[in-house]
Design a protein that fits this description.
Layout (H helix, E strand, L loop, with lengths): L8 H4 L6 H23 L3 H12 L5 H8 L3 H13 L3 E5 L7 E5 L1 H10 L2 H9 L3 H19 L1
Antiparallel strand pairs: 1-2
Helix pairs in contact: 2-7
Keywords: Cytoplasm, DNA-binding, Transcription, Transcription regulation
Pfam family, one: Staph_reg_Sar_Rot
GO cellular component, one term: cytoplasm
């Protein structure tokens, strides 16, 4: 068990003592859990998080969306092309600055939101946590992420 004091040298490099591995493996488990539900929606997990961001704030620029999702343009551009090909989003160059491209939901993209409302419930059910526990855990991980990024 890890105490408030430093981890003993022989424990420092144990896999099960690594927060990074706990977060990584938990992320893989959640993505695996979501896969059947996302398959029904015709979305991959990265496409799902892009849609989540656009359901929150439609019309983001590609750079704003990339910053929000913490994805670089090399990852985001092909993802958006696939969402556009699926008829869920449209990309449009800004009139005042052709270098800026805005992403907007199509009618089909907006309709998909109602079907996606069941996705978060999968985690709530599988984790056997209360909603409050998941909210608290999410806030703790976000705080950790933000402190590391700073």
């Amino acid at each position: 068990m890890v105490t408030k004091t430093a981890i003993a040298k022989d424990q420092a490099l144990r896999l099960d003592n690594q927060l990074c591995f706990a977060l990584y493996s938990a992320s893989l488990s959640i993505t695996k859990l979501y896969k059947p539900v996302l398959d029904e929606l015709g979305l991959t997990y990265p496409q799902y998080i892009a849609m989540l961001a656009l359901w929150e704030e439609d019309g983001l620029s590609v750079s704003e969306l990339g910053a929000r999702l913490r994805l670089d343009s090399g990852t985001l551009t092909p993802l958006l092309k696939r969402l556009e090909a699926a008829g869920l989003v449209a990309r449009q160059r800004a009139e005042h600055d052709e270098r800026r491209v805005h992403v907007t939901l199509t009618a089909a993209g907006r309709r998909l939101r109602a079907k996606a409302e069941k996705v978060p419930g999968c985690l709530l059910e599988a984790s056997r946590c209360t909603l409050g526990e998941l909210v608290q855990l999410t806030q703790q991980v976000q705080s950790l992420r933000d402190r590391i990024a700073a």
